[in-house]
Protein: Protein arginine methyltransferase NDUFAF7
Amino acid sequence: MRDFELIELGPGTGRLLTDLLPTVQKLRASPASLTLFEASSELRQVQSKALATLSNAPKPRWASTLSEALDNPNEQPVIIIAHEFFDALPVHVLHKVPSKTGTESQWREQLVDIVEDPNPGEPQFRFVLSRAATPAVALAQSVCTIQPQTDSKVLEVCADGMSTARRLAELIHRRGGAALIIDYGSDTLRGNTVRALSKHAITDVLASPGESDITADVNFGHLRHAVSGVPSMRLWSSISQREFLLRLGAAERFRMIARSVVATDESDEEIDNRLLRLQQDYDRIVGVGEQNMGTVYKVAVIANEKEGVPFGFANRSG
Ligand SMILES: C[S@@+](CC[C@H](N)C(=O)[O-])C[C@H]1O[C@@H](n2cnc3c(N)ncnc32)[C@H](O)[C@@H]1O
Structure:
């Protein structure tokens, strides 16, 4: 296996890496170098501690900008992982408003304004609409989200996500490799999906800026459009996490682990408990419905189409 660089965008607590690295080590496919793109200094410390629990993990290089993350002079092929990263990038929300003449509609961007307060204290915020079309409107038009027949009254476009996807495609085009994107969203999004989460509950987006996680569904169709600007690069999207993992053999793997649990000489009660936990974990990642991740999360891959169809995407047109 050729040496490669593993880049994770937004590693969070580092949990994905501490699960993934020992597994790829067993397959003798460890990355020669590891780059973590992380904006938060607190999370970098958490990631550092998590990685320190592994033996033989490559020493990570942290990057605080995308350019830093992608500018490793070693020119090895790259495997890029972005799990719940694109949903954290800022989106532009656009609203359809009637024109002054009333004959046709126009698009305006939702902006944040400070509420004039006669008793200044904590600033309060409110949403307003731009007076004229902004560059985000032009971007949405360029990706065909806004067409004369668009029936939706609210749309989103994520300029950061699109430019990130394009830069990943350019990097993979130059150095070889692939990017795996796992996130919630779909190929064709409509409406305003921006929401704020605080302590696992949905909260007012404007209430405490900086203290809640603001997220929006990922428009994989827009990312695909961005990638298509790079010759021979393509984004395969968006298959459900359930379908992707089943195609990669998740059910067979589940049965293998279950058999190995039953074959231990532990007590019946302990075996039952471990099988129950295994089933619960399996259901959480491949199960359907809002309470599970199987159909809510989608998987997309950016790769060079000359390399063939990525695993899990055969027989898909997207
Ligand atoms: C929801 S967490 C993802 C967690 C992790 N990937 C996982 O699978 O558990 C989002 C991550 O992206 C990082 N992040 C969000 N926006 C970012 C940005 N603009 N630049 C760099 N990192 C960012 C956050 O700090 C966090 O590590």
Remarks:
- DSSP finds nine helices and 15 strands in the chain.
- The chain has three domains: 5-89+159-244+296-307, 92-156, 247-286.
